[in-house]
Amino acid sequence: MSFPIVRHRRLRGSAGIRGMVRETVLNPLDLIQPIFVTFGTGVKNEISSMPGVFHFSLDTLKEEVDEIASLGIPAVLLFGVPETKDAVGSSAYADEGIVQEATRLIKSWYPELIVIADTCLCEFTDHGHCGMVHTHTAADGTVTGDVMNDASLALLARTAVSQAKAGADIIAPSNMMDGFVQAIRSGLDEAGYEHVPIMSYSVKYASAYYGPFREAADSAPQFGDRKTYQMDPANLREAIREAETDVLEGADMLMVKPALAYLDVVRVIRDQFDLPLVAYNVSGEYSMVKAAAQAGWINEKVIVLETLTGMKRAGADMIITYHAKDAVRWLRE
Ligand SMILES: [Zn+2]
């Protein structure tokens, strides 16, 4: 008996040989760092549920951007917390809006750093929904409402145009209205921004993993939830239909959000479509790792690199992650 004929352990015998046969390599160039910008001056406030992630006002932002640029992270994703909110999210598409101002500053400091503008209304509306709402107040004071799809599209296109005008390199619409890619593409083209790509949040689930983000972006819905526009976590075939629609409407990149509980979705979208694919390693995924690391229950560095590598192995070309700065430091060690 000549067992074992096959010895898998031959290729695991040393760090050198393991490196030679490694199939998936995480690269700093794969990572995108989100940034939260807010109004006021002198603000650098840590978000309590996201240790290590801060709100920055425009006058404190440079320190953060300097660090990101010096680490060689190629891109940032901007979220804005405005001073005033209203029913139609008008500060989302104001030329002097917080995201527009931050974009101009970052591009003036680092012309090569890619600025991705998140295009949605929920951070800018007083009701916290991603589009315009039609509300109804019952006799007992209970407010209900519907998000109006087509009426919201014009505002989203207007937001994207104002972001492109401020210098955003990529428009990333996250609102999940039907037809949003086409509406934004048309708006950008008509305004002369036909060269600006769209990174579509194509497959975005109605997920409890967004909880810490809603504190960070102050964007929790004031009534109802987002289940009429974000996807049911149980659905996979529907993810293919969502992505297919975005491809037909002219999306340049696709996204799956969240990432960790949806790696099967990442793999299916990777296999079905040939556009670059982004996975969003969301706030709740980040906060769980941070909490466990603070309790001393896990090795944060190894867990983070393993998780991000898993997302790449599942098929993501790029990963939006709050761990980006740490991950790049660890990759360079
Ligand atoms: Zn939104």
Automatic annotation (TrEMBL):
GO terms for cellular component: cytosol. InterPro entries: ALAD (IPR001731), ALAD_AS (IPR030656), Aldolase_TIM (IPR013785). GO terms for molecular function: porphobilinogen synthase activity; zinc ion binding. The keyword Lyase applies. Its EC number is 4.2.1.24. The active site is at residues 204, 257. It comes from the Bacteria. Keywords: Heme biosynthesis, Lyase, Magnesium, Metal-binding, Porphyrin biosynthesis, Zinc. Pathway: Porphyrin-containing compound metabolism; protoporphyrin-IX biosynthesis; coproporphyrinogen-III from 5-aminolevulinate: step 1/4. Its cofactor is Zn(2+). Mg(2+) binds at residue 242. Transmembrane segments: none annotated. Belongs to the ALAD family. This is Delta-aminolevulinic acid dehydratase. It comes from Paenibacillus spiritus. The gene is hemB.
